[in-house]
Amino acid sequence: MNFYECNLHTLPDGSDSPSRMALVAKRLGYSGIIICNHMTAGRAFGFDAARLVVGIEVVFGVEIVATNQRALHAKAASLREKADFLAVHGGDEKINRAACEDPNVDLLAHAYKGRTGIGVAAAKAARDNQVSIGLDLDPMIRLRGAARVRWMEVVRRDLGLIRKFDLNLMISTGAKSHLDLRSPRDLVALACLFGLEREQAIEALALPKSIIDLNRRKWASVGVELL
Amino acid sequence: MRSWLPVLRDRRRYIAFELEAEDRVRRGDLIGEIRAAQTSLFGDLGAAENRLRMITFDGRFGILRCIHTRTEECRALLATVNSVGGTRAAIRVRGISGTIKAATEKYIPQSILQPNENKRRVDLGPVSGSVARVHGREIDLCPDDRKITEGSGTRYVGLTSFDLCGEDIDADGTSDGL
Description:
The complex is a heterodimer.
Chain A (H helix, E strand, L loop, with lengths): L3 E5 L9 H11 L3 E7 L8 H5 L5 E8 L4 H11 L6 E4 L3 H8 L6 E3 L9 H11 L2 E5 L1 H5 L3 H19 L4 E4 L11 H9 L5 H19 L2 E3 L2 E2 L2
Parallel strand pairs in A: 1-2, 2-3, 3-4, 4-5, 5-6, 6-7
Antiparallel strand pairs in A: 8-9
Chain B lengths: L11 E10 L5 H24 L2 E5 L3 E7 L3 H9 L3 E2 L2 E11 L2 H8 L13 E3 L4 E8 L2 E6 L13 E4 H4 L14
Antiparallel strand pairs in B: 1-3, 1-5, 2-3, 4-5, 6-7, 7-8, 8-9
């Protein structure tokens, strides 16, 4: 299977260079990584060096950080042409909803914060606009005790929604350092603890590859491809 | 402790793992951390069902024992370990086997390259500092500016030799040394 880690942050957003992430991810069994630095992080570093790492595909995407819905739609529209992969930094109910309503967006990342999840309206919108929901397992790894329980409750509730509306799901770690990365099998084992099926989890890890392939084709307009 | 009857003895699996850490880690700290992760994730009841034991640990590679039906749970709980004794760390499962001998022979390398202890300076414009450790092509850099690692909670900046010398085209990322 072509496993992709779909939401990584590198220097200066995280603490590793893209090539270090690529080397470690390759060792862990990924066939590609997508680096989505936050827009607010500043100028990225070491892109060319990452392409020298053989045996793993390194894709550079963007993670949009917006404070309101209008700014989000504007940024998504302007970045769509430039980036292979567009993620949105969620965590706020309005932003989550707006991201799901925007067909330009590929992934809603970090959607869970406190009690905030995606909700029914956003889930319906995500189905219509083919926006994937990112299940970010970083809280599962980092948090302990009551905070993790709260997070797991919200995720469990929303996995029901994801199943009902048959949404696209991507599993990632949102790693900021190579020590945050986990191998695909570890992520599958973690995801199975929530009641996700094994096949579903494996599919979720392979999904970014097909999205990237779709994005790289030349679309003249919706449903029209330049050959 | 010996079981009363051989048929009642539980079947075991041995998990060979590699610890990736920023600093040296003591065996006792690692055991404590795994226990804490286990009870935090499954509670006392679930932890008792896993029956996890540390068999060996040499500072980098180690072997854990568990019940043969619980290997996926063990994988999950090892994945939730993020620091050991205050040092950022990650446990990579290398493989699972039915005997200690097979786990050692298949998954634990017998000759381990010692990391270089030389202190070299790196200056790459936005990032500068001194080299803390080198593992093959991977370089841990102790940054001059502490702010750069603030968000991720790590002490070192992770780089590779590709970042230092861009012209090394035919590298496949597996050879040792710089």
